[in-house]
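tl;dr need the bound structure. longer version: we got a ligand (phenylalanine) that a collaborator sent over and nobodys looked at where it sits. i said id run it. heres the input, straight from their email, havent touched it
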Amino acid sequence: EQLKQEMNAATGSDSDAAEQFRIKYLGTKGIIKGLMGEMKNIPNDQKKNFGQVMNDLKQLAEEKWESLKGAAADAGASAGVDFDWTLPGAPVNVGGRHPISIVRNQIVSIFKRLGFAVAEGPEIEDDWHNFTALNMPENHTARDMQDTFYILQNPDWVLRTHTSSVQARVMEKQKPPIRIICPGRVYRNETISARAHCFFHQVEGLYIDEHVSFADLKQTLYFFVQEMFGKDVKIRFRPSYFPFTEPSAEMDISCTVCGGKGCSLCKHTGWVEILGCGMVHPKMLDNFGIDSSKYTGFAFGMGMERICQLKYRVNDLRLYSQNDVRFLDQFTGGV
Ligand code: PHE
């Protein structure tokens, strides 16, 4: 009897109150279930009577629950009528560009101003365009410089190890003057760490015309880094080796963090390496039917992640492909 009164007294007009009621009386750990469990302790002759009382209680509880739910629904409906449609909406997060895309777009726009066009090519490449045409015949040690992912062997199909393969495709089809940059993803079979990944992004450039000299190469790259990192940046060249250029060089810039004074990023040398470059090897021009006695050219290649690291001080390569929103959110306003 007491329970009946208590249940009847239960009020409330929201769905929360109805749910609370259900849990208290009708839930698997609720009062009614609990009392049902007492059945086994009731003397046999009273079992029938007890059962009757319990059924009544259960029915009452269910009716009450239905009515509480009804009240909640009514309240919800009238609240809907009163809804203020002029309230501002919930904020929607705006996405931003990936730092690699920001840097790529900046690089492309700088070289476009110098008259370079963007060229693209396939990421799955045949041996000829990735190696042989670039003066890296089979068994050439230079192939070991790049740990290659093979898709097929004999004939070899690979994931391109550099975007020089795009330059090969352009030289195949176009006659000088050629002035292109090739941004794109490249793959190398390296153990993933903060400083190496199995893929990264490159931008390579190629300029072939009459009378193209090393001075042109130097001035073009100097203009590029000044636009990218500011007018105060200094450059220096160190001799190097690439099978497709002769002479070859690596270019350093004065450290963007300490301005050349020495810090941990530049390992206290004041300089950081940013790209490889050189004068196009005459044999390459001949490979593509370009008269090497008439034309000369320069080429260069850089990693976008590196440029990005120097610009934004990202110290772990893995961050670029983990898609952690806390990382990506920091790059806003890029075009
Ligand atoms: N292809 C070279 C690499 O991936 C970079 C490069 C391009 C060097 C053009 C010189 C000239 O390492």
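gonna send this back to them w/ a short note. The beta strands are 117-118, 124-126, 150-152, 157-159, 178-187, 199-209, 235-242, 245-254, 271-280, 296-303.
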